[in-house]
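Supplementary Text 2. Reproducibility record for the structural model of the 528-residue chain.

All settings were left at their defaults, and a single model was retained for analysis rather than an ensemble. We include the record here because the model underlies the residue-level annotations in Supplementary Table 4.
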Amino acid sequence: MNAYPIAHKSLSSAPTTLEGVEDVSLNLLNASWRRSSSFGLDPNGKPIDAVISEADLSQINQKNEHIKQFVMPELELLYNQIAGTNFMVAYADNSGVVMNALKDSEFEYSEAGRAVIPGSIWTEQYRGTNALGLCLHTGSSQIVAGKDHFFRKLGGLSCFAAPIYNSRNEIVGMIDATSDASSRQQHTLALVKLACVNVENRLFTDEFQRCSIISFHARHEYLSTSSVALLAVDELGFIEGANTNAQVMLNGLDISHKRHFGDVFEIPFSNAITRLSSNEIIRIYDVMGSAVFMELSESRNKRIVELGSKERPNSLAPNAGANPVHKSFSEPKKNENLQNFIIEDSGFKKHLDVAGNALIQGLSIFIEGPKGSGKKATAIELHRRFLNSKSFIEIKCDLLCEDNFENELFGDEGKLSFFRNSPPAMPKGKLQKAINGSLFLNSVEHTPLKIQTILARVLEANQEAANDGNENKINAIFVSSLMSIQKLSASNNMDPIFLENICGAKVVVPSINQRLEFKQIAIELLKQ
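Retained model, structure tokens:
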């Protein structure tokens, strides 16, 4: 009888752990606490240690074997992307049973680490309010941090969970990341969601492997990212399936039932597929007048061709109209000083893909690697892919000191001008110059503590501007270091708030002699 009043009292302090989250999240937490209480759970007690038998776990593994082959590579990549220590990532099926968990050594031997094991059940019925249980109940991604957990014993953890959907909008699994509350980072959920979307896209491509998989997006540079919309179209032009992004982008055009390509887009399917099969990206309009770029998923190195039957306003694209537009898709702007960026190493490629997806989500990119491995070149390549026409501003952190940092960062205008969001007509400070472009913090491990504190405020203000939809912001933030996130976190010379702001997604650049394309890189260097 006392369980609900205690829970209700604890909930009154929950908003302090959910800065910036809308009231709907608090309503979800309140409802979850009420459900947990109705199961007879006591927040002052222990969660029910529910674990299925080995025989049942074996059956569930067999049932999910197909999905698991797509989940595990993403889970391993996510494990390597999350910053800090004392954390784990886990994959659960659509009933809340943990199938796999990857933990660092510190988390492995903690009480929570011993509870999250293959076969453990993490529904609200047994564990009260937790991220996996709430994600399963709501069907949406969730953060349950600190005191938001029903059980006080779990109050030292922050948990992030997101669902994996199939093409029929059914949950087929979930991915969770858990860390100690002291190192909770809002961007962790974005990384978890990215992992789930990657799994969904791979499941979609596998399910419709007999169809043509057509990718499309309003911006052609996003065609290779996880935010791309996917359509599965048969040889007659009928749409057999659409992923979540496609359903969102074609909102207003009912594709929940089988429809023909020509009912959704202005161009006949035969015309479109002919151009797509010729290794081209086409610019096409749906029947509601929205323009998208489209390609066949399995091929690359395409030129862009506009297909349209109507005259369109120039605001939609350069040279939009009846005449085809031919231009390179992947070729960077001509720049004699730009080295050829060679990449054949599959592991490195995967890291870059994740980083690209993270940039779209507004996350910073932490680039780790030994001296001479190409950390700056990696930042420039990512900038080229997404912000090619914008400025790329480098700050060499090893040259910053208390005597020069204000002029270097803020110019003659000073800090007040930057934080008041009143940019000068001719900015001299590097932070102002990076507005609408990219900022590269090189050798961040050498940044003095005082300057780290100021940069943390800058990055937080930039994130607030992004959240408010303010276009006057730095669009991409890259950070490089010889040291890993773990080593930086353990150092006494790094501000934890600054670290939290720079650790969005991680790219590990291997030594050049360890990369598969070493010979190609060596030849390119000899040419220069």
